[in-house]
Amino acid sequence: MREAVILEAVRTPYGRRGGAYREVRPDALLAFALNGLMARAGLDASKVEDVITGAVTQTGEQGANVGRLAVLMAGFPAEVPALSLNRMCGSGQQAVHFASQGVDAGDLGYAIGCGVESMTRVPMFSDIGGGFERLNPELLARVDLIHQGESAERIADAWDLTREMLDAFAAESHRRAEGSRHLHAELLPAPGMDAGGQAITLQHDEGVRGAVDPARMATLKTPFRDAGVVTAGNASQISDGAAAVLVGDRDIAVADGLRPRARFVARVVVGDDPTMQLTGVIPATRKALARAGMTLGDIDWIEINEAFASVALAWTHELGADAARVNPWGGAIAHGHPLGASGAGLMAKMLSGLEATGGTFGLQTMCIGHGMATATIIERL
């Protein structure tokens, strides 16, 4: 029976919007990650049978099937195909799911699930030429689609989350991210540029703050409501980055001298309320745990994407999760959220975390715009 396993997983450090990668095209950034992945794995790229790429804003430099363009830029053989998909914030995670499902089905021996997003060079919503006003009026008359920031505010209302709770969670995300800087084995230092225009190699996530001033955080505006609780400080950072995960059939990989590092226990995607839109992580987690025959107490390491602090806190409260196991190295509030890359990047980070701590089971879940969510459970081997 075929079994998909993770063989290698890498991500670039994430850059701030307008930061170190401001002059790096997304196809080049992904090509760098793909080459780094294959170099670490020690596998010839000719053995890869598909490259599945998450990218949310597929226009301009991220258009024209950016996955295929990156494969060609990386110097992979022309025979290696690639596609690009958009499941919004869950795109990179979905890419890993599809890669592993192709291996499990026996269609692929090796595949890469990856993702990229340059939110500096290809701004959000530029693929539709603007914001919600560009969506179909008939759709908007039928479904109350609102900005994710307002959804995050409604989640805070529903779970009685205060501004102080959200800000404290955000500060803790930075504290954990700063404290784990030296532990991220998945990081692939990448070339960039400093503020003065000099070439540098970015070693760590650019957005992580060594210390957060609570008083200054408390002064940040609430852009979605006059008396709201959601701010730029307790929401994910707009970022640039790329990540890639090499998946292969266990028997084939072992025969080729590669070491399986994790196997897939459960993979799910769910639809949920499109207005609240960010609460899908709750049913997605429950569905993944049920499919695996596990409880949350069985999970050693949890990655829930910190799109907004209210999402992560509501999920933690609803599921009764041990906060110490949730984003132990911080999350997107600190290290950033390059939309299409984040799913593969969190998978790489979670695997590093499990290996660093000797944990066995990891759970990753991500909220997705328009009311969806992905979830994955892996077992470290």
TrEMBL record:
Keywords: Acyltransferase, Transferase
InterPro entries cross-referenced by the UniProt entry: Thiolase (IPR002155), Thiolase-like (IPR016039), Thiolase_C (IPR020617), Thiolase_CS (IPR020613), Thiolase_N (IPR020616)
SUPFAM superfamilies xref list: Thiolase-like (SSF53901)
CDD domains in the record: thiolase
Record flagged with keyword Acyltransferase: yes
Chain ranges of the Thiolase N-terminal domain: 5-248
Domain Thiolase C-terminal intervals: 259-380
A Pfam family recorded for this sequence: Thiolase_C
Family membership: Belongs to the thiolase-like superfamily. Thiolase family.
Protein name (Swiss-Prot/TrEMBL): Acetyl-CoA acetyltransferase
